[in-house]
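User: Modeling request: complex.
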Amino acid sequence: MAPRLPLHSRLRNRSLQLWWTIAWSLLAAVATTQDATAFEDSMAQRTAACTACHGEQGRAGPDGYYPRLAGKPAGYLYNQLLNFRDGRRHYGLMTRMVDLLSDDYLMEIAQYFASLQAPYPAPAAIGRPVAPQVLQRGRELAQRGDAPKNLPACAQCHGERLTGVQPRFPGLLGLPVDYLIAQLGGWKTGERRAHAPDCMAHIAQRLSDADAFAVVTWLASQPVPTDSAPAPAPAVEAPVAPDLTCGTAPWPEGATR
Amino acid sequence: MKHAIRLLLALAALALLVAGWLWQHNFNDGVALDAPTVAAPPTPTVLERGAYLARIGNCLACHTARGGVPGAGGLPIATEFGTVYTSNLTPDDATGIGRWSAAAFWRALHHGRSADGRLLVPVFPYTHTTLLTRADVDALYAYFQSLPATQAPTPAPALRWPYGTQAALAVWRALYFKPGELAPDRAQDTRWNLGRYLVRGVAHCSACHATRDRWGGADWADLSGNTLKGQGWYAPSLLDPAQASVAHWPEAEVRQLLRTGVAPQGQASGPMAEVVLHGTQYLSDEDLDAMTGYLRGLPSTASNRAAGAQARPTDSRLSQIGARRYAQHCADCHGVEGQGQAGAYPALAGNRAVTLAPIDNLLQTVLYGGFNAATAGNPRPYGMPPFLLTLSDAEIAAVLTHIRTAWGNQGSAVTPLDVHTLRAAALRTAKS
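Assistant: Request completed. Predicted assembly structure:
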């Protein structure tokens, strides 16, 4: 027999139930009135399957797992879509989504999300207190790197303001700490890959766990600047470091830059 | 004692006879591997024919791993007996078919034996390629030999014992495999004969659509539907008007389905979408027309799978939840009345794929969502979100029951247990 709960707790449960019922009825009512939404042949409609998880306009999902798409460089998004389709990144649901799509259409989807400008939320508080020297180390790595450890600064590729660089370096701000940790970890273990030569894999493998935590924590605690647009493409793309070049997919023929 | 010895001797003799017959049946095809048969170098016409057949026969799609070199193999094929990896068809000497003669290649497709003489696992559909003409096989050989040689060892098959053994394969072949080409049917016209050659041979439709027995064997002329146990999809009957028969479709719509993956009364999803994307969209006008004619001319037979499932009463509480979830998650695209949106989202009212007795495909669609194949004729498809993480088994059962019974649909109810069972299977077989 289940233990009998104290009275106040039972009452709370009951009132909670009542609130749920009301909330559901309201939701159902809203859903019914929205049924009449007119169909429109637009990229927003064609990518409704993406925004179901990645949030309205690709602003990111609610739980920190589905990253933001809006405003990221088109080349970066395109590379990721190909990575999922061609087995360099692994997430079953994402692979199934892009499995039957062509390079051209994936580029169109990438360019659509890249063109969306949506405001960023304020950075979420990090679950536990972080020592100031950890944040200090994170900032140092992000902005200046660590030459003795052969680690370039994040800013060297991802832009001085860390909002990314056209056409294919993503911004690093405005991303949840869990997502950043998962990605760096994925790169360290080879679970996440990019086109060869995979520069980010080399960098992640050189990062110690403590340094990875420091840089990720610092990045996740930074506010996104008002102008969150990626920096324009440099006239000449300099290699990251003498021994680090970054691979990418060729731009599909016919797609505009 | 004497009797026992006699009996033992008789049994031994019988076993020897059976083994001898099996040997004769499987290994005595008499193909001379060094016979010089192909004129070298192949003409551009032959190479073009080979490339065309490799596409429409889905050779390339299967013999290419995700993101891998075309033709270099390595794609895992899951079956209920275990997993087999497709082989490297590029002319690499060590890991591909660089050292294979044209006769060895012919023997593989026609008799199902490898260059080293071993019996091949029938996941490679030699049950169907045996129907190919020698000229077509030679064209395929010439085409594969023209690909860039890629070193890519084929992973060993992971079949449960004894399914991968030569003895088991010999018995299976004695039961289910008969080498031989199709004799032209004089009572039918050229178009029908071509259609039959494409459907039964090149495109090997019955590899998925023939009803298989528990040993994976079938009558290879059959197209009455089959559950692809390793993949979690159901290949519907092409004979049953309640499933995927196209006998009553206008010819233009059948052509449209095979060419673009979408048609007014149905669309290709799952493995069939891959077949359209990599194969049938490239059919020549003549071949597409012949295949269409043959498929429309198939006899109409109700599938035995349709019966039995109808009897279950619908739980009214489940239907109510289903209607609510439908309004919340589905109606925006599929319409309040399940009417769909022409050119974008399929109608669910009156849709055979919705009322089909095996619910495997419906469940795959709701759990994983996805886009239609981006074919040349439908290059910017619409998509459906996955509900794997948003809806529980009970909610999915409710919403499926709703769409299978609303708007005049006559499908059977779906229970949470059905969903649970299939979800577990789908998770096991989900591609990653």
